[in-house]
């Protein structure tokens, strides 16, 4: 049977806001952001074999030095990058200030291995922050804790306690320099936590240091502590119990530019990702990897702009939505349900229906525990409908269908917050019963 591959752990719990995650006022914007642009760009982009090429091919520090001197991405345009985010309907941007290979994409007084002292001698981080701010985008700085270039490296830190102390102090100094130099920013996006846990990274000390410099800043959880939000990578599994979260997803199969990777997600797939995070009150952080010369791959730009055009008409179905999904075992207070025509999102008394597989003629949904008072096609006009108990029938015109077409969206105004409840039986039993499956199965992860 068709089913959504992303599920919550059981038993189902309605989302609650953990106090610790909401102690900073800046959290509100993040919870409502829904959609951001992730940009992986660095020395690895010149090689065109993905962001882990230095590790995978065991490139030496000596091999990186001449690469840094050649790094002159003449087509890198921070304004064009921020314009693309805006055109795509995105609300924030995360830029890689330093990936695992250790090359700083900013002006550093701690290392000569940085973009202002090598190659084109540009401060790419400053350029991106300025461009984002001018367009009203929130801005985050990705920064790897792990570092394959600097010595001592992570292996030396594991092998020698005295080297560990130097390694940690170097890491903290690097982060301190970053957040002092670029103040304010909205997010510090840690990554590359090998080889330590929170204790090994001295993560509490790390976060406290950063918050003293930028009290408003948000952290993800990739230094071993939970952080202000979760960051599932390449999947849409929301945290359980719920807290603010962001799924980081590549537009093809790599984070950094790979010349041979043409497995682009279609606009329909990106809209599906956005719908699924909106159902679970999360964000989608969609990644692109500019080429080594700084240019944006044409296909990634095309996909983002196409989705942005769709959002101009349909974004209300995704922005500031309430939790609305379904659980296999229990009903819960915020139950939604799957449909063979497409998923639902909810906002107050409004139910949105994203028609990924539109029918011809009438459209039926059952199990509604509310009364519908109006139906509208977003970007169009009102539609005729009738409702008998929980069964709603909507008369719709023929809608476009095909791989190149994006889904139409219906807006259902209800007399109360909408709930859809169905079981695997034809009727809802009048006695206690399983939500959908009485036993664990391979439908849930």
Write the layout of secondary structure elements.
Layout (H helix, E strand, L loop, with lengths): L26 H7 L1 E5 L3 H5 L5 H4 L4 H10 L7 H10 L4 E7 L25 H11 L3 E7 L9 H6 L1 H21 L5 E5 L6 H4 L1 H11 L4 E2 L26 E5 L16 H13 L3 E6 L9 H17 L29 E4 L2 E6 L5 E5 L6 E6 L7 E4 L2 E6 L11 E7 L31
Parallel strand pairs: 1-2, 1-7, 2-3, 3-4, 4-5, 6-7
Antiparallel strand pairs: 8-9, 9-14, 10-13, 11-14, 12-13
Helix pairs in contact: 5-6, 5-12, 8-10, 11-12
Strand order of the largest sheet: 5-4-3-2-1-7-6
Helix content: 25-40%
**Domain unit count:** 2
Q: What's the overall average pLDDT, rounded?
A: 90
The amount of beta strand, in percent, is 15-25%
- The CATH superfamily name of the largest domain is Glycosidases
Q: What is the CATH class name of the largest domain? A: Alpha Beta
CATH topology of the largest domain: TIM Barrel
Q: How many DSSP H or I helices?
A: 12
Distance between the termini: 16 Å
Are there runs of 5+ residues with pLDDT below 50, and where?
Answer: 1-23
Number of strands: 14
Name given to the CATH architecture of the largest domain? Alpha-Beta Barrel
Largest sheet: 7 strands, parallel
C-alpha geometry = elongated
In sequence order, what are the helices and strands, one letter per element? Answer: HEHHHHEHEHHEHHEEHEHEEEEEEE
Structural class: alpha/beta
Radius of gyration: 24 Å
């Amino acid at each position: 049977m068709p089913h959504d591959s992303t599920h919550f752990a059981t038993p189902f719990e309605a989302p609650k806001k953990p106090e610790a995650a909401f102690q900073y006022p800046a959290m509100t914007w993040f919870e409502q952001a829904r959609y951001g642009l992730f940009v992986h760009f660095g020395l690895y982009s010149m090689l065109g074999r993905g962001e882990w090429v230095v590790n995978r091919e065991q490139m030496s520090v000596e091999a990186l030095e001449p690469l840094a001197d050649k790094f002159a991405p003449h087509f890198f345009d921070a304004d064009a990058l921020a314009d693309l985010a805006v055109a795509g309907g995105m609300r924030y941007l995360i830029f890689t200030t330093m990936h695992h290979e250790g090359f700083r994409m900013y002006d550093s007084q701690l290392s000569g291995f940085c973009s202002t002292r090598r190659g084109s001698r540009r401060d790419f981080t400053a350029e991106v922050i300025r461009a984002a701010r001018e367009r009203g985008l929130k801005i985050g700085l990705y920064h790897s804790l792990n570092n394959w270039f600097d010595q001592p490296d992570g292996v030396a830190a594991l092998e020698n306690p005295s080297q560990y102390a130097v390694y940690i102090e170097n890491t903290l100094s690097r982060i301190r320099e970053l957040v002092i130099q670029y103040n304010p920013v909205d997010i510090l996006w840690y990554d590359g936590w090998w080889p330590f846990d929170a204790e090994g990274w001295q993560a509490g000390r790390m976060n406290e240091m950063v918050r003293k410099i930028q009290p408003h800043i948000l952290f993800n959880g990739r230094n071993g502590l939970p952080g202000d939000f979760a960051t599932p990578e390449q999947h849409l599994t929301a945290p359980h119990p719920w807290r603010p979260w962001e799924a980081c997803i590549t537009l093809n199969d790599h984070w950094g530019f790979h010349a041979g990777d043409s497995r682009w997600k279609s606009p329909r797939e990106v809209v599906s990702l956005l719908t699924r995070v909106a159902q679970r009150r999360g964000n989608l952080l969609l990644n692109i990897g500019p080429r080594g010369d700084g240019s944006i791959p044409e296909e990634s730009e095309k996909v983002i702009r196409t989705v942005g055009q769709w959002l101009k008409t349909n974004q209300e179905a995704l922005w500031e939505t309430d939790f609305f999904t379904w659980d296999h075992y229990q009903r819960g207070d915020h139950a939604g349900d799957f449909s063979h025509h497409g998923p639902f999102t909810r906002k107050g008394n409004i139910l949105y229906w994203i028609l990924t597989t539109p029918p011809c003629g009438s459209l039926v949904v059952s199990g509604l525990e509310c009364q519908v008072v109006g139906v509208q096609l977003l970007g169009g006009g009102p539609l005729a409908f009738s409702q008998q108990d929980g069964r709603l029938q909507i008369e719709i015109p023929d809608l476009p269908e095909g791989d190149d077409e994006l889904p139409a969206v219906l807006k259902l105004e209800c007399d109360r917050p909408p709930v859809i409840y169905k079981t695997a039986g034809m009727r809802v039993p009048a006695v206690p019963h399983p939500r959908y499956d009485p036993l664990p199965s391979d439908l849930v992860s």
